[in-house]
Amino acid sequence: MAAVLAVFTGSAAVLERFPGDLAASEWVQSWRTPWLDSAMEGVSVAGEMVTAGLIVAATAATLLILRRKSEASLIVAATLIDLGVRTTVKALVARPRPPADLVEVIREGEGFSFPSGHALHYAAFLGLLLLMLPSIVGPGPRLRVAQGILIAALVIVGFSRIYLGLHWLSDVIAGYAFGAVVAGAA
Questions:
Q1: Confidence class for position 8, pLDDT limits 50, 70, 90
Q2: For site-directed labelling of 100, which of 49, 64, 144, 169 has its Cα 20 to 30 A away?
Q3: For residues 113 and 22, what is the distance between their CA atoms, to the nearest angstrom?
Q4: Can you give the three-state secondary structure of the chain, one letter per residue?
Q5: How far apart are CA 73 and CA 128, in angstroms?
Q6: pLDDT recorded at residue 173
């Protein structure tokens, strides 16, 4: 897995986009409607540093209330690690965001494109929650519903990054992959 991710990352450093990135952006952006624009903007806010930090803090506090100190600590530690991974990989690859002459840029982004920081963070955070859920919720329908909600949220975050013209599909896939590594390592 590490070797594949390293090759993928190295390729992103030299390619403006991967084959299929433009077609994926065109397809995702073909769904544009005013209400979906607003919804995707809202999803984007959930991944901004302050909002994401508040969500992590609220989750850790809830876990502490449930007397799950190790899980709360793990969530916070994984979030700090995902921030370090995101910052390092973005600086090393330095891939520009999709240009406005190729995709519709609905929301301007700062910094580099690869990997998607929102996808990386939520893959690590929600992925770790998915791994913890069975011991917190227990077996049964509540577990399946909670898992479904977390998986849907993760998919929507990735969709929003492409929809808003902030990332290529390959940026989102890389974010998911790096986030999965962080969650798995945690």
A1: confident
A2: 49
A3: 14
A4: CHHHHHHHHHHHHHCCCCCCHHHHHHHHHCCCCHHHHHHHHHHHHHCCHHHHHHHHHHHHHHHHHCCCHHHHHHHHHHHHHHHHHHHHHHHHHCCCCCCCCCCCCCCCCCCCCCCCHHHHHHHHHHHHHHHHHHHHHCCCHHHHHHHHHHHHHHHHHHHHHHHCCCCCHHHHHHHHHHHHHHHHHC
A5: 12
A6: 95
Contact 89, 26 (CB under 8 A): no
Q: How far is CA 137 from the centre of its chain?
A: 24
* CA separation, residue 158 to residues 28, 38, 66, 139 (Å): 11, 16, 30, 28
Q: pTM (2 decimals)?
A: 0.91
pLDDT at 176: 95
Residue 161 · residue 172 · CB < 8 Å: yes
In this structure, what is the dihedral angle of CA atoms 33, 27, 161, 117, given to the nearest 10 degrees?
180
Closest CA to 173 of 185, 158, 160: 158
d(CA 143, CA 132): 11
11 contact partners, CB below 8 Å, separation of at least 6: 18
CA distance 112 to 109: 8
Rg (alpha carbons) of the chain, rounded to whole number: 17
